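To illustrate this point, we now present one chain and its tokenised fold:
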Amino acid sequence: MTTYIHVLVAGTLIGALYALLHIRSPAPPPTALAGLAAMLIGATW
């Protein structure tokens, strides 16, 4: 479980850095990210 927390914190920090530097992220749209997060949560339960 702590691995997921570390990944969440790291992703949040990188996202904030990208926002501060006005860098476009190569990540998919938020809808796709929400789907990936739901799959990850479903896989751990």
Remarks:
- Residues 16 and 22 are 10 Å apart (CA to CA).
